[in-house]
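Reading a protein record of the kind used here takes only a little practice. To see the layout at work, look at the sequence and tokens printed below.
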Amino acid sequence: MMKNNKILACSLILLISLGFTITKGYGQRVGGLPTKSISNRLLISNGPEGPIKGGESAVTDMLLLKDGWVYGSTKATWGGVNCHLFRTNSAKIEHVLNITSKFTQQTSITDIAVGKGDVLIGSTSTSNEIFDDKTKKYEGGRLFSFNPATKSLKDFGIIARGQGINCITVDTVREIIYGVTYPAGHLFSYTIKTKALKDYGEIMTPWRVKDFGRVSWRGVPKVLFLDDAGTLYYATYLREPIDLTKEKVPSGASTSRSTLYGGRIYRLVYGTDEPVFTGAIVPTQTGMDSDPIYENGIASVIRAQDGGFWCGTINDGFLFKFYPSTSTVINKGKAFQYWNLKSLAYGGNNNLYMLGGRDEDNSWLLNYNPMVGSINTLGWPENTAQVGVICADKDGRILFAENQRHSFIWIYEDSK
């Protein structure tokens, strides 16, 4: 009996030891990308002395320009006060410009786009805490351009008093910047040569949400995109007024209400004043979520080689292709359980790479092979990485950029 007890005790000790070994060796890497596929890891912030201090390195966007550098933008978080432009060649990071030092009150570069002549066009905003505090006076988000060749900065001014700018896109032929204000959700255009500013009105009523003590306004479009004809596209909800009978109207209440259908793709034709519904609807997983109206939209867009646009959805993380000429939507499905395909990029192998995951959580790298039509979940760079955007460099490597207080960029090479 004693002999059997000793054998049992030894077995338990061995199993426990193996358990500790497995946890220590692999517990933090389950689901992670292969170690050899990450060829570099670059820290964006420069410490207390700057120029990019801690809390100023959360990346909001990245773009590859013709000079071979990937340019990025940041926002201030967790006590930070400045936002910056930087650039990287996947071997090092260089500081380009402190935008807040030029434009006071602007703590976030919300979006950057490529303008005529490979000039950067950017938009700014401030924090949700400022928007939610009526005692705070915010002047409004600005549009600007930065020429990397000449290092010149141009201020196009404030677009809407007290409002930030959520996203932009640029018609490089007509030199028109389109954008959406935040949190009011108004579509606008700004013509660079004439300085003409036009407000097309509210395109989506924002919804104030408080989550874990943090306030944000959901529903404001995250992305705008243009076809070759200069027609603008975005996703919003469709509002149709419904008259109520007298029996259903409470005393003093409105005599009508609106039906809210999410995920409708609208277009604004150049030269017109009114956006119209294309008839195309963003793919949605019905019966699962309690909030399909505001969360159902387009989070990311990239041009496809056949004239269409690859799009990633907010609500469910679907990948779909949209053809503007026919208003056709082709749903390619989803490869993982999280929602929000928030960034897209082409790799050196012509595969489409996708960044999926909630904004304040681990982010996954996925890819889509157009030759075989398969979507694959590849993993994440590190178990604590909160990545906000991906971009390809001139050699086709995929850059992951974090949106935390001290943000890193990981360089991913599929061939490795």
Summary: The longest helix spans residues 2-26. The chain has four helices and 30 strands. Residues 351 and 371 are 9 Å apart (CA to CA). The chain has a mean pLDDT of 85.
